[in-house]
Amino acid sequence: xxxxxxxxxxxxxxxxxxxxxxxxxxxxxxxxxxxxxxxxxxxxxxxxxxxxxxxxxxxxxxxxxxxxxxxxxxxxxxxxxxxxxxxxxxxxxxxxxxxxxxxxxxxxxxxxxxxxxxxxxxxxxxxxxxxxxxxxxxxxxxxxxxxxxxxxxxxxxxxxxxxxxxxxxxxxxxxxxxxxxxxxxxxxxxxxxxxxxxxxxxxxxxxxxxxxxxxxxxxxxxxxxxxxxxxxxxxxxxxxxxxxxxxxxxxxxxxxxxxxxxxxxxxxxxxxxxxxxxxxxxxxxxxxxxxxxxxxxxxxxxxxxxxxxxxxxxxxxxxxxxxxxxxxxxxxxxxxxxxxxxxxxxxxxxxxxxxxxxxxxxxxxxxxxxxxxxxxxxxxxxxxxxxxxxxxxxxxxx
Length: 398
Ligand SMILES: NC(=O)c1ccc[n+]([C@@H]2O[C@H](COP(=O)([O-])OP(=O)(O)OC[C@H]3O[C@@H](n4cnc5c(N)ncnc54)[C@H](O)[C@@H]3O)[C@@H](O)[C@H]2O)c1
Prior knowledge:
By secondary structure, the chain is of the alpha/beta class. It has helices at residues 11-20, 37-47, 56-61, 77-87, 101-114, 128-138, 165-168, 172-175, 177-188, 290-293, 296-308, 317-336, and strands at residues 3-7, 28-33, 51-53, 67-70, 90-94, 118-121, 145-153, 194-202, 213-220, 225-231, 239-246, 250-254, 263-265, 282-284, 340-341, 360-361, 366-373, 379-385, 391-397. The protein folds into three domains: 3-124, 3-Layer(aba) Sandwich (Rossmann fold), CATH 3.40.50.720; 145-290 and 316-341, Dihydrodipicolinate Reductase, domain 2 (2-Layer Sandwich), CATH 3.30.360.10; 360-397, no CATH class.
């Protein structure tokens, strides 16, 4: 059983608590810190937590606490992590790890110096659909991964601090792009270096200083390309979709908005439908089990299994740092309108990886470009001469 201090009793703190203490979980929240006493108390009552406080350190240092779960606004992550290092308590932190790579690097170095367990709570690489898709990718079902796109768009976040660039550290690129970048990175290979980023960003709708809509490309050293599409201006709910293209196959994932559960209601008795749903009448797209579909259950299972077995979880502060470094380059590119290098002062993956090559030999003389079966019953091959470079067509059946 893991004994947990929850820092933050808001939106994600409650989702995490539902997952941590849901089903027949043996893990327990033993202390809750929240800024306001009434929120801390309410959370303690709702989740049967024996200790509540409005002093963050009191929660971290509580003698019963073994692991601290940071569910605080972005600008408070670093201070909370450093306090865990001082108290020598294991720490798991929500996304994004830092407001930028500089903060994330300080957090990574601090936990490693303190020698404490650390996990990065990137739930969307733990969804059941993602895990299955990733297993297929690792088994080679898609061949070489050439392009991995991830999209997260919704009508905007639920608390004031997100909309303040100082506290949040950015707009939708940081808030949602962190998920998309880690999804792309995982499909492409976390040991493959992200080298440069091209990004468009704008503030199209909301009266804020940060961006509310962005599209970016992340180029990897092996030539693979990651793509993120993020928005706080999308209408219609929470759109979570991934597409992966490989030399041998394709995967399309729709994780939230169209999961195969469609419902119509006149609105009578209507209530909560799903995260960021904009309507509770008419045709609706509910989600069967949000905690599971969003990956929280599998994420915490990995975190606590790793902690108990003295291993690293799949997502660590190092991953959070790499994600922040990629997003820093995206912000630079959105301003400069150029490809910007990803600055990774700490890199633990492969170096000098060659570009992907997927040439298929037809025979000694030719490469195979394409095999085609036409609608008029003719089967043909398009071939390229290896020496001369000439492209020829060979008709197998007329
Ligand atoms: N899918 C996900 O992984 C996911 C989803 C939502 C939010 N998050 C992350 O979780 C963190 C918290 O987001 P949230 O949606 O729970 O926010 P929230 O506003 O709903 O809750 C914030 C909590 O922090 C506490 N707090 C302490 N000091 C504060 C301060 N100075 N200002 C505001 N709140 C303060 C509040 O009391 C509250 O309990 C953020 O880093 C966010 O990016 C992750």
